[in-house]
Structures are given as C-alpha cells and as structure tokens.
Amino acid sequence: IRSGHPQGLDESMKAIVQERYGSPGNLELRDVDTPVVGDDEILVRVRAASIHPDVWHVVAGRPYVLRLMGAGVFKPRIPIPGTDMAGIVESVGQSVTRFRPGDPVFGETIVAQQWIHGGAFAEYVSVHQDLLALKPDNVTFEQAASVPTSGFIALQNLRGVSQWSGKKVLINGAGGGVGALALQILKAHGAHATAVDSTGKSGMLRSLGADEVVDYTREDFTRRGIRYDLILDVTGNYPFYACRRAL
User: Fold this and answer.
1) Disulfide-capable partner of 49 in 4, 85, 113, 203 (CB 3.0 to 4.6 Å)?
2) Low-confidence residues of the chain, pLDDT below 70?
3) CB proximity list for 236: less than 8 A, separation 6 or greater
C-alpha cells in the first residue's frame, strides 16, 4: 500500500493534543485521525520523539511573535506538538523514491527554523521525504530522535568545520543539545576543544572528548587570559565585548 491508510492500520491513533497556549498542563492524550500521506510524504510509526526549547516555545506561545510566524494567533494551528522523531516507515506516497516500508528513519517533521507544531508526539506522523534520513544501526531510536534540530543548529554554525582542525575552540553551553553535538563534531575534525558548562556536566563533557572543561559557576572563561580561534556561544550569557577578550 503506497498511499492512504495501510492495510490493517487503524484510522485513529493516540496523540498529545493542545488546544490553547500555556503550560504543559494544557496537553492531553486523545484519539485522533491517523494522518494520510501525500505523494511526497511518508507515514512514520513513531518510536521516539524528543523535546527541545523550540517545542516549548510553541507550547507556551511565547514569544508572541511566533504566533504571527505560522504557529497560530489565538491557538496552535497544528494541534499536535513535537518536531524531532525517529521511527519505522509504515507507508509511502506515490512519488517517494528514497524510502520503503520497514526502513528505520529519523528527522524533523517540519522545515527547519519554522516555529510551529510538527505532529511528532503521536503514534504516527506524516513527513515529507526530504526531511528524513535512514537511522544508522548503531544508534538507538531515542538517540536519533534527539539529533535533528540540535544537530542542524550545530552544523549551521560550524560551516567549513574542517578549518578548525588543530585550532583552539571554546563552546559555551557545551552540555546542552547543541553544545554536546558541536563538541563531538569539532573533536572529530581535530580541534582542541574547551567545554564550558556547570559542575554536574563535567564528567559527561570529558567523556565526549573535551580537552579542557571550565565550570562557569567557579570561573569566567572570558577572564582566564586564554584566547581561542573560535568561540561557539550557545547560551549567550556573556556580552559580546566580554567574549571578545577571549577571542
């Protein structure tokens, strides 16, 4: 079956639904219609879906400008939250050539940098084929679901990453989703990486390959007297003139 509901698939599914902006208390588990795939779309049986700050912003409806950017002015235009997920291809549209039923996939359910709900917090989600990739066998569904948005932001800000081979780089906020991936990408390309985050994340950052770890609760990296070829400032908790001292 290449479009519509696959044979034997229920026409309803469980999903997290939001009818108004606000706290997570507004989210409800409900029965809704299972998506029908378009010609270029894939129906994915969701095995894992992740939460990141952009998902929270749309759930909360703040900042308010995002409502004018497509999320919906008075309530979420798309009622099912979530954008990053991993799962199994259930069925494919007539024009899909890259995937087939049974393939393990991961990716985003919306075009990057759109501030809207993406329908990932459900048993099934319909996704354009260009937004998905095959999941590597050595990565779990949970790991894969945590990568898309954070990985896109990391790669977008590390264009020409090979140029940092042998260079000194610092990642401020290295223990978050974007920072942890950026750290691994930079180390894979031969950079000397200093990771900045809180005390409890020091061990994790060293396990990811950080050459040096700075605990921001005890030390200000901008006043260490050390200069870096690149500073990736994920958290933005220092003014630019302060970071410039270390650049």
Assistant:
1) 85
2) 1-8, 112-113
3) none
